[in-house]
Design a protein that fits this description.
With 401 residues, the chain is of the alpha/beta class. It has helices at 4-12, 30-40, 52-61, 78-88, 103-113, 125-210, 214-243, 255-266, 270-273, 292-309, 340-343, 362-372, and strands spanning 22-26, 45-49, 66-70, 93-98, 117-120, 251-253, 276-281, 288-290, 315-323, 326-333, 376-381, 387-394. The protein is built from 12 helices and 12 strands. The structure holds adenosine-5'-triphosphate and magnesium ion. The site of magnesium ion (MG) has 5 residues, from α10.
Length: 401
C-alpha cells in the first residue's frame, strides 16, 4: 500500500503514472508461457522469451515493470537473468518460479538479484496475479520516489537561485533607498552651505577693503575653497542618488594640481596637522583628462582614511607617479591595515568599521568617481604594515602642436 504522505507528495508534485504495465515472462517450456499469458494478458502487455539471453535482449527494447521467470533453464537460471537485468533496468521487479526450496540459498539469491518474490511450483494463477499486483505497486512506488527526489532536488536548486537573486536585489534596493535619503538630506545641507558661502564671500570683500594681513586673508580663502568643495561633493552625491550617475566636468588637468588641491583641503582637518605628511610628486607627470574637483575629492577621502588609521605624529604619504602612460596616485599609511571584516566590501556604500565616526561613504564615492573616469582604484597591503590605496588613471593624449 502506498504511504499516505507519499501519495499526497506525488499528487502535489504531479509525478503521474510511472508504470508501463509491461510484463516479460520467461520459461524454456513453451506450454508454461502459454498458460501464464492466458491470465495475464487481460491486465498487462505481455512479452515472452524462452531463455535468459533472449529475455535480456527483449528487456533492452521493451518497457517493463515486472519479469516473471522460471528458475531452472538450460543457459541461464532465473536468478542469474535478474542479476544481469539489474545492470540496465534496476527498477524492474523480478518474480522467480521455482521448485527449489533451500532457504539459505534463496536468501543469498534474493540479495544478489534483489528478487521481489519467489513462488513455489505448483502455483495457482491467483498467486501469480497477486504477486504481480504487489510487484507493480512496488515498482510504481520506487519510481515515484525516484522521480520525486529528482524533482525536489531540481526545485531546491531553482529556489536557491531565486533566493540569492532576491537577496541581492534587496541589498541593492536598500542601498538605493539609503542613498536616496542621503541625497534628500544633502539638499538641505547644500542650501545651508550656500548661505555660509555668501557670508564668507562678504567677509572676504570686507577684509580686502581693510587690507588685513595676507595670512588671515589666505585662511578665509582656503576656508571658502573647502566649503565650495563640500558643496560640490554633496551635489555629486545628490545627483547620483537621484539618477544613479555622476556628472563629470572633464578637462586636461595636471596631476600635481590634484595633489595640491587635496592637501589644501586636508590641511583644514586638525588631524592632518597631527601627522607627518610626506608628499612625493614625480616631475613632468603627464596630464589626465578628468574632473579636477571630483578627483581631488577621491584623494581627500583616501588621505582622511589614512589619517584616521594612523596614530598621531606618525607618517602618511601621498604620491603621484607615471607608469606606462598612466598616472598613479597613491596614499599610504602606517596604520593597522584593512580590518578583515570589511575587506571584501570595502568599496560598497555604508561599509564602515568606525561606528558612528564613519558613514562608509568615502571609498564608495571614490570608486564611483574613479570608475566614471574609466580608472582603477585598489588597496594593497604594505609589507611593513598599513594600507596603500592606489588610483590609476590613463594619461591624456599628448598635445599635437
Ligand atoms: N587606510 C585605511 N586603513 C585601514 N582601514 C581602512 C583604511 N581606509 C579605509 N579603511 C576601512 O574601510 C572602511 C570604509 O572606508 P570609507 O572611507 O568608505 O568609510 P569610513 O571612513 O568608515 O566613513 P566615511 O569615509 O564615510 O566617513 C573604513 O571604515 C575602514 O574600516
Ligand atoms: Mg572614510
Amino acid at each position: 500500500m502506498l504511504d499516505e504522505g507519499l501519495r499526497s507528495l506525488i499528487a502535489l508534485h504531479g509525478v503521474g503514472e510511472t508504470r508501463s504495465r509491461g510484463i516479460l515472462i520467461v520459461d524454456d517450456e513453451r506450454a508454461n508461457l502459454t498458460v501464464l499469458r492466458s491470465f495475464l494478458e487481460a491486465g498487462y502487455t505481455v512479452h515472452e522469451a524462452q531463455s535468459g539471453p533472449e529475455a535480456l535482449k527483449i528487456a533492452k527494447e521493451a518497457d517493463l515493470d515486472v519479469v516473471i521467470t522460471d528458475q531452472r533453464m538450460p543457459e541461464m537460471t532465473g536468478v542469474e537473468l535478474l542479476e544481469n537485468l539489474r545492470e540496465f533496468k534496476p527498477d524492474v521487479a523480478g518474480i522467480v518460479l521455482t521448485g527449489f526450496t533451500d532457504p539459505p540459498a534463496l536468501i543469498s539469491a534474493i540479495n544478489r538479484a534483489r528478487v521481489f518474490r519467489f513462488l513455489k511450483k505448483p502455483w495457482q494463477p491467483d498467486d501469480i496475479l497477486e504477486a504481480v499486483r504487489q510487484a507493480s505497486e512496488h515498482v510504481y512506488q520506487a519510481r515515484a520516489i525516484q522521480k520525486l527526489v529528482t524533482l525536489l532536488a531540481r526545485r531546491t536548486k531553482e529556489l536557491d537561485a531565486s533566493l540569492q537573486e532576491i537577496r541581492s536585489t534587496q541589498r541593492q534596493l536598500l542601498h538605493m533607498e539609503r542613498l536616496g535619503t542621503m541625497g534628500r538630506l544633502a539638499t538641505g545641507v547644500i542650501h545651508d552651505l550656500r548661505n555660509l558661502m555668501v557670508s564668507l564671500g562678504y567677509i572676504e570683500g570686507v577684509l580686502q577693503q581693510k587690507q588685513v594681513a595676507t595670512d588671515v586673508m589666505e585662511s578665509v580663502q582656503v576656508g571658502m575653497q573647502g566649503v565650495d568643495n563640500l558643496i560640490k561633493t554633496l551635489e555629486a552625491l545628490h545627483q547620483f542618488a537621484k539618477g544613479g550617475r555622476l556628472h563629470l566636468e572633464k578637462a586636461k588637468i595636471e596631476a600635481s594640481q590634484v595633489v595640491q588641491d587635496a592637501i589644501a583641503i586636508s590641511r583644514m582637518d586638525l588631524n592632518f596637522r597631527m601627522h607627518k605628511v610626506e608628499v612625493n610628486v614625480e616631475e613632468g607627470l603627464p596630464k589626465v583628462l578628468g574632473d579636477r574637483q571630483k578627483l581631488t575629492q577621491v584623494l581627500v577621502n583616501l588621505v582622511r582614511n589614512a589619517l584616521q588609521a594612523t596614530a598621531q605624529w606618525r607618517s602618511i604619504s601621498i604620491e603621484a607617479s607615471a607608469q606606462n602612460r598612466r598616472v598613479i596616485f597613491a596614499v599610504e599609511d602606517e596604520g593597522p591595515g584593512i580590518p578583515p571584516e570589511v575587506r571584501d566590501n570595502l568599496f560598497k556604500p555604508f561599509v564602515s568599521s568606525k561606528g558612528d565616526a564613519g558613514m562608509g561613504m568615502g571609498l564608495y564615492m571614490a570608486k564611483l568617481i574613479v570608475d566614471s573616469h574609466q580608472g582603477e582604484i585598489a588597496v594593497l597591503d604594505r609589507p611593513q604594515g598599513g594600507a596603500r590605496f592606489e588610483v590609476r588613471l590613463a594619461a591624456a593624449a599628448e598635445e599635437t602642436s
